Amino acid sequence: xxxxxxxxxxxFSLPSQAMQSANPTAYNTAISELRKTGVQLxxxxxxxxxxxxxxxxxxxxGKVHGIGTSCxxxxxxxxxxxxxxxxxxxxxxTPEQRAEWKAAKxxxxxxxxxxxxxxxxxxxxxxxxxxKVVAEVYAQLMLIGSNFSESLADQLWSGHSLSYxxxxxxCKMLSTTGRRNKKxxxxxDAQLDLCTTK
Length: 198
Ligand SMILES: [Zn+2]
Prior knowledge:
Layout: E1 7-13, H1 17-22, H2 24-35, E2 53-58, E3 64-67, H3 69-74, H4 79-88, H5 95-144, H6 147-157, H7 164-174, H8 185-196
Antiparallel strand pairs: 1-2, 2-3
């Protein structure tokens, strides 16, 4: 057969094994639809290898053949033409399948959106709770009013924890003596803990 002078008339992929086990009826419908194209399914008309993706070509005698994408290039068809055909999916699906897939896609997207919404709500809730905990330290740091104290305050307010060194600086800044002693030990340790908690 002379495939050299054939031109692309379509493209389809075989329905997946997953579809075959999940929905045999849809799978069989898809296969019988594909058979109507007159293309031999599952093997390349050029090299005989098993294929999933079929570039459908019509030869000079008007007969259609399915060939693999790499063989399509070998017989002289351009990459662009093959890609275009692939995007066309001329024989790929029945309207019912397309509707089914579209509905499934909408369902998937809705589930994803719901998941994102819940995650955002959980994050917001966590941040709110964290802000309640750090509010007092935050306010005190802001009152000191240095760039350093404010940047640490911002870190805490945005939900981040501080490094041990940073937390120590907070304790120093917020204590009257600048060091841990018997009198302020409990408060010092509590602040250290609070600032480094993740
Ligand atoms: Zn081939």
